Structure formats: C-alpha cells, structure tokens
Amino acid sequence: MSQTLNTKRAQRNSAGPYGKIGQSLNELDDRLGIAKGGRTFLDKIFPDHWSFMLGEIALYSFVVLLVTGVFLTLYYVPSQDLTTYTGSYLPLYGQKVTEAFASTVNLSFAVRAGLLMRQMHHWSCDIFVGAIVVHMGRVFFTGAFRKPRETNWVIGTTLLILAIVNGFLGYSLPDDLVSGTGIRIAYSIILSIPVVGSYVAFFLFGGNFPGTSIIPRFFILHVLIIPLVILALVGAHMGLLVRQKHTQFPGKGKTENNVVGTPMYPVFMAKTTGFMFVVAGAIALLGAFAQINPIWQFGPYTASRISYAVQPDWYMGFLDGALRIFPAWSFHSFGHTIPLEVTIPAVIFPGILFNLIMAWPAIERKFTKDNAMHNLLDRPSERPKRTAAGVAVAVLCAMLFIASSTDVIANFFHVSLNTVLWAMRILCVVVPILAYPITYKIAREMQGFAGAGKRKTTNIVTRTLEGEYVATPAPVYVDDLTHEHEPDAVPVPTYVVVGESSQDDETISGVRRVPR
Amino acid sequence: MSEHEQRTPVQLNSVSADDPRLQPAARRPELVEKVIALTFVLGIVLIAGFGAAYWVNAAPWTLGATFGGGLTLMGVGLIAWGKYLMPRGPFVEERHTMASSDEERNAFAAAIVERGGGVVKRRKFLGGLLGAGMGIFGVVAAFPLVRSLGPLPKGTLFHTDWAKGTYLVDITGRRVHHDDLAVGSIVTVYPEGLENTDNGQAVDQTVLIRISNENFVTQKGRETWGPSGYLAYSKLCTHLGCPVGLYEQQLQLLVCPCHQSMFDVTNGCIPNFGPAPRPLPQLPLQFDSAGFLQSQSDFNQPVGPGFWERS
C-alpha cells in the first residue's frame, strides 16, 4: 500500500498538519508536557504603554554588560603585583604600575576592539543603574508595587543595590588614580562603622589599606559572585512577572481581571528583540564616540597621590555629596570615637534610604489599610501623598548628587567654596521639604480636571474687532479619537484562516484589507 | 501506529484573516515594508562594515560606529516590523486568581504544620539538638571563612613607621636637608627606606612644609616640633583618608581634593572648612648634626579617618 511509498509528500503527510516542526513539538510534549504552558506563554500579553520599556533597557544593558564583561576578563589581570609598563601608550612607558593597571591599558590599546568593549562595558553599567532607577520610579509612582507584587519590588530594590555595589567594584578594578582614591574612601567608610568597623575593614581588605588583596577580591566579587546573584534575581524578577502577569493602566476594556496589549509571539518578541539591538547599538555608539574613564590620563594609583575634581560614577554621587555637605560632627567619648561625619551620611543614610524603599509597600499598606489585589495602575495624581513622598526622596537624592560637585560648581561660577557648601547644605534640607507640599498640591489640583493627564485639546485664540482676545476650543481631530474607535480586545487567535472572509468588507469601517 | 494517529483531531478556534485586529497598524504597509527593508539593508551593510573594520584593525570609533549603527538599524527595522506590520490588536488575556481553593489551602497548610510539624513536636528534644547542631555548624563554618580573610587590626591603626630618629626622605629616597626647602615650599616625605612600600605610601605619607615664622601660632607643648619653620603633618585627611594633596600657599591652607576639607597650616592644621573633624596629626621634627631632618617620634595622634577604637 502507500506505506511503501517514501516520497516527500508522504513524509509530510505522516508528520501531521504542522509538518516537521509540529512533529518535533509533539515529541517534546510527549516528554515534557509543554504544549499547554507553552501556548499560554506565547499568548502572554504585554501592555502597550511606553513606560513598560524602561525595565527592558535595564535588562538589555545587563545583557551588554555580561557580553562585554566576558570579553574584558580574557585580557584583564586581577593582580596588584608591580610590573613595568612597556605598551604603546608612551607617556606611561617604563613606569612601575600594577598588573591590573597595565593590563587595562593594554586591553584598551593593544587588543582589537578592546577600547570599544571597555567603554561599552562602562557605559552600559551607567545605563543599567540609570534604567533601574527610572524603571523603579515608574513602578513606584503608578503603584505597581502593591499586592500581589511586593516581593518583586523587594527583588528590584535588591537588584539596584547590587548593581551599585558591582558598579563600584568594577570601577575600582583598573587600579587607576581616581578609582584607587574611591577605594580609599570606601575603606574609611567601612572603618567608621561603630564597634566592628576596623575588623570588617581588615577582613574585607586583608589588612590595613591598601594591602595586596583588594584587586583579586574585588575581581572575583565583580565577575562571579555578584553577577550570579544578579542573574538569579533577574530570573526571579522575570519569573514573578510572568506568573503574576503585567499591570496595566486603566482604559478601554482593561479591568483588574485581564491584560490588554500585544501578544508575546510574534509581535512583542519582534519589538523587544529589536529594542535589545537598539539598546546595544546605542551603547556601542556611546562607546565609540563618548570617551569614558580614560585611566591612562589619570595614571596608576599611588596612595600618596591624588587628582583634583575627582568624581565617582554617577550612581555614587549622592553618597559623595552627602559626605561633602555633612558637618564635622565627630563623637569622642568613653575612650571611643564614632566618626558621625562619615557614619551618618555614608552608612546610616543609605541604610535608612534603601530600607525605606524596600519597606514602602508595607508602609503604604499600613496607612491605607488596603489589602486588596491591584492590577490596574494609579495615575501619580491619584495618590498625592505617595507621589509627594516619592518626589521628596528623589529630589533629596538629586540635591545630594549636585552637592557631589561643590568644587566644580565653585570653580565654574567663580563663587567661593564656602558659599556653595552652605547653599547645598541648606538646599538639601529645604528643597525636599518644599517638594512634598508642592507636589501634593499639584497632584490634588490635577485631580480636579476631568480627563486630567489626557491630551489637551487645542484652543484657537482670536482677536475681535475691539481688540479683545477670545479663546475657543478647537474642533477635535479625528486622530485624537481613534483610540475610542479601537476594536474590542479579543484573546489571541489560535490560527488564521486566509481567504474566508467572515464579514463583508463594507461592514467593517476603517479596516484596510491587506494582501498578506 | 504512532500515538499521534490515535488522537482524534479537534477543531481549533480560528479567526478570519481580515479581522480588524489582525491588520497592520500602518496606513500604507507596502511603503513601510520598503522603508524597513531599506533599514535592514543599511544595517547589514554596516554590520558587514564592522567585520571589515575589525579585519583591518581600524580605529575604535570606526568599529563602534559600524557595530552600533548596524545594530541600531537592525533593531529599528525589527521594532517597526512588529509595530506597524504585525497584527495591531488589541488582544486580551484573562488573569487568573492566584489564590487556590480553601480545600487546597487547608490541605497544603495541614501537610506542612501537621505532617512535618507534628513529627518535630513529638520529638522536641531531637529537634532542639538538630537546631543547635545546625546553628553551631553555621557559626563554626562562618568563623574561619571570615577570620581567615585578614589579620586582626590590633594596634595597626594607631601607629605609623615613624619613630625617634627616622630620616625624612622624598619619593626618590633622598634625605631632606635644612637648606633644601625655600619658605613656602612643600614636599611629600616618607620614612627612610619605606618610600616605595605600600605602608610607606598609604600610612606614613607626610607633608613637609616650610613656613615663615610670622603669623605662626605655636600649639602648646609643640614648641620644639617645627625647627626653622619646618612643619610635618600627616598627609592623610582625617575625614576619609584621602591624601591632603593641595597646598593653598597664599592662605597657608592644606586642602583635601576629595571633600574639600581645609587645614590651617599656621595653626596646628586645625580644620577650618569642610567635613574633617580633627586636625592633621603632627610629626615632631629635629635636625641631626649634619642638618638632615629627622622625626622626634611617631605622630602625636593616630593618622587618618576616625574609627571606633580611637579615643
């Protein structure tokens, strides 16, 4: 019978309606039972709002970090042993430098695409932390952290802390003059912790500063331990996201019990993969055209040398600013010293800040007594107190960030350092305190408008013959209403029948027929 | 017969190709398709260009421009494909409540509390022993892990390598003579023999300044510490240990570039600006018979930033 025939057609027919791919999927399903869950995953809906893209920036810059980081580990030597630099950068030729410094300069100048990879790595780190912060702002101000997503908020905050710590460690690895000074400061901050500070510092650094273990220890933390934790937490972050599904802004057809938007496959997949390319491409362009951390200009680290106008990477700025403006309140008594001028701004303040951020979902629930599930997002103006509190904290951090460049400001505007310091001390207290009531007021005012937050219609201002100006609302453009004409959302169809029109063309208004 | 053939085919829910939600968002899809194709072609050209640039070892910016430009163009094209040419939706997905039924919840809680907890409750003594064992193991395992990382601080933070009769040398190892510095000059000095060591650089570093005796306030008990206007102060800022590397000659101030603490050289290096809480420790100086500078002893205080054990 036909069994004996072994034509391609026969093979295709025996493979079932979806061919070889279908067959292998069935084989997989026989063993793993993936069909149901896989289908649900393909149909996962992603909301279309642009603000959901911020977390993607963080994710994809992390991917760039991993790829470029692996490249760098192939050439970087994590050692503080002294060597004589004999590479191609002449100003350093013949100088005694550490292996770490020499290998970083060499991988920048002697390795093909090395400089590009290094600059991409540094840029993607700055973008990674930045994207996390902005993404966090979106989650905070729209109330996306509320039940059931408190755990993911805590994971996200932990990721921010780890990103900052790992950024600092990586920034220190080249062992250049600027980063070495940063390590010296970090050592002193650890030293300032009451009771255990000197022990913690000695154990972390393997002795008194600088010792010979910092670079190897920072290296293994930076390239293995912390990235692994970050990777695991990113996995958990994504896993919870899929399990709990996305939040969404209120809108047509959107309820607490559904998600409206774009399906995972293939639409979102195309968009997000494209976006990954764009993020990586933008970082590559930055790496190509915007110089970052030119360590050969700073020179190798020597404990008794220092450079003027040194600033850390941006995400450490708020701590540096806090250290600059905090008064010299050292506590000496009972035979002990608590260097409050360091402990408060660099240990207690960030401790309170990050604990407050982590605990915020619980704190808010305490005040609102709201224990319900929330899948629809708030507009920031709908929750004036939360928005005001968030703005106050953000403004405080921004002011401290500005305070981290008091010397540069004084130099640039030709004012005395004393004036700048005192201005920043006052501003760091006053501006956040003012930010709260102002934000609160603005949010309350916005609540009063019908359709607040939507696009405003244009006014046409005309001058009458008497010279009076009259504003009349312009007619609404049809474009503005297309959202209202949007068809109702349906579940993602299983498969598409081509050529069998279910409705006549004329009955569907505004639909273009397209040959596919 | 294979298993698949035994299954009865089922009807899948289908949708017509002209369903409005399956239409592309673009008004003129053919045009958009051409634009995307152009973007892809340009992207491919740039990525191939990156390969060529890498091959000939071109300048880093060429590598970055071709690589970044190519990736960006491919990405933009792909996003545009997804956004304008794929089904525009909207589509919806139902959310299912996370919470299980009461029965399932009770069964789960009962399994944990009764089945496991009951076993422990019946054998409290064993449970206690196990807990104690794990606790002790944790402490014992953590102790060497932590303790092996570094030495105990002991007195390290209190002392430097300066002692009675240590010669002051500059970074090249040359001793400093009475006639070496003009008034208003400054040099960083180290204990002789330690100028190129980690400890000498990081802990013992000292600024030697020669000032004129006018306007100089001698601190009580330090009358003999600064012979011939030579003053030596620890170079470690008392705020966070940065080298106090800037000397404002007109104002006779030592300035820390990290957080702008300023120390008054004419008055025992007492901080008069910024976050530093204490004066820079001073190193008592003397001349040997040949006129070379020596330290009389260690610094009068522990150098560098504050820590708990410091009184």
Describe the structure in your own words.
- The complex is a heterodimer of chains A (516) and B (311).
- Chain A has four domains: 2-33, no CATH class; 47-324, Cytochrome Bc1 Complex, Chain C (Up-down Bundle), CATH 1.20.810; 379-458, no CATH class; 459-507, no CATH class.
- Chain A is built from 18 helices and nine strands.
- Chain A has helices at 8-14, 19-32, 35-42, 54-73, 99-109, 114-141, 150-172, 177-191, 197-205, 214-244, 264-289, 295-298, 317-325, 340-368, 384-403, 406-413, 417-447, 478-485; strands spanning 45-46, 82-84, 96-98, 258-263, 331-333, 336-338, 459-463, 469-473, 495-497.
- The longest helix of chain A is centred in the middle third of the chain and has 31 residues, at 214-244.
- Residues 502-516 of chain A have low confidence and may be disordered.
- Chain B folds into three domains: 18-85; 105-147; 160-295, Rieske Iron-sulfur Protein, CATH 2.102.10.10.
- The longest helix of chain B is centred in the first third of the chain and has 27 residues, at 29-55.
- Chain B is α+β, with helices and mostly antiparallel strands and 311 residues long.
- At the A-B interface, helix 6, helix 8, helix 9, strand 4 and helix 11 of A face strand 1, helix 3, strand 2 and helix 6 of B.
Provide a quick synopsis of the model.
The complex is a heterodimer of chains A (516) and B (311). Chain A contains 18 helices and nine strands.
List the domain count of chain B as a whole number.
3
The end-to-end span of chain A amounts to 39 Å
> Structural class of the helices, strands and pairings of chain B?
alpha+beta
Number of strand elements of chain B: 13
What CATH calls the topology of the largest domain in chain A is: Cytochrome Bc1 Complex, Chain C
Which key phrases capture this entry?
heterodimer, A: 516 residues, mainly alpha, 4 domains, disordered C terminus, B: 311 residues, alpha+beta, Rieske Iron-sulfur Protein, 3 domains, four-stranded antiparallel β-sheet, 6 helices, 13 strands
